[in-house]
Design brief:
two-stranded parallel ribbon, single chain, mainly alpha, disordered C terminus, 4 strands
Length: about 210
C-alpha cells in the first residue's frame, strides 16, 4: 500500500513530496470520492481562490483564459462527458501557449499551464482519468508561486483539505447528494493529435 501524499508532505520537502506523487510512490487516494467530486476538485485546483488562478502572482489574460477554460470543461464533465475533439482543442491551445516566450519565462505560469495541458491530454483517450501528473504539476506551480517553503506547504495543504472535504463530506454539508447520471457523448474512435503521446516532463524547482 502506497503512503499518502499528505503524510509525505509532512515528512519531507515539498519538492520531494511532489516528485513522489508524480512517480506514483505516494498517492492521493482519488478513488475515495465519487467521480463528480473528483472532477469538481480538479476544476478548483485550476481555477479557484486557493487554486492556480488565485495564486499566480502575474499571469496574462490568455493564460488565465486557458486555465479557466479547462476548469470549466472539468466542471461540465461532472455530469456530461465531453468528446475527445473538445479535449483535443484544449490540448492544442494550451500546448501552443505553453511554448510562448511570455509563458516559458515564468516557471510558475509554465507549470500551471502544463497542468491544464496534461489534463486535456489525458482526457483525449481516458473516460476516467487520474490526473496524477497534472496534480503534481499544479502543486509544483503553487510551490513556485509561494514566497517560501512554509507558504508552499500551507497552500498545498489547503488543496488537500479541499480534497478531503469532497472525499469525506460532513453530513448535511455541500455536495453530499449524488450527481445526475453522466451522459457519455464521447466518440468511439480514438482521436490522438500529433505529439499527444508525449507528456510534459515534471520540473522540480530546487528543494522547497
Amino acid at each position: 500500500m502506497h503512503e499518502s501524499f499528505s503524510s509525505a508532505l509532512n515528512e519531507m520537502s515539498v519538492a520531494d513530496a511532489v516528485m513522489q506523487l508524480a512517480s506514483g510512490t505516494v498517492e492521493l487516494a482519488l478513488e475515495d470520492a465519487p467521480e463528480f467530486a473528483r472532477w469538481c476538485w480538479f476544476a478548483d485546483v485550476l481555477d479557484s481562490d486557493w487554486g492556480l488562478t488565485g495564486r499566480l502572482p502575474v499571469a496574462g489574460d490568455d493564460v488565465l483564459h486557458e486555465l479557466e477554460r479547462v476548469a470549466g470543461m472539468c466542471r461540465t464533465s461532472e455530469t456530461k462527458a465531453l468528446s475527445p475533439d473538445a479535449w483535443r482543442a484544449a490540448y492544442e491551445a494550451t500546448e501552443r501557449l505553453a511554448h510562448s516566450s511570455a509563458v516559458t519565462s515564468s516557471e510558475a505560469t509554465y507549470l500551471a499551464l502544463s497542468a491544464a495541458n496534461d489534463i486535456a491530454l489525458e482526457c483525449i483517450d481516458e473516460t476516467h482519468p487520474e490526473f496524477t501528473v497534472a496534480i503534481a504539476l499544479a502543486f509544483e506551480s503553487l510551490a513556485a508561486c509561494a514566497a517560501d517553503s512554509a507558504v508552499a506547504r500551507c497552500w498545498i495543504a489547503r488543496a488537500l483539505t479541499e480534497w478531503t472535504n469532497r472525499a469525506h463530506p460532513v453530513a448535511g454539508g455541500p455536495r453530499t447528494g449524488e450527481a445526475p447520471p453522466i451522459t457519455d457523448t464521447r466518440q468511439n474512435a480514438s482521436i490522438v493529435s500529433a505529439g499527444c503521446g508525449e507528456r510534459v516532463l515534471l520540473r522540480v524547482s530546487g528543494n522547497l
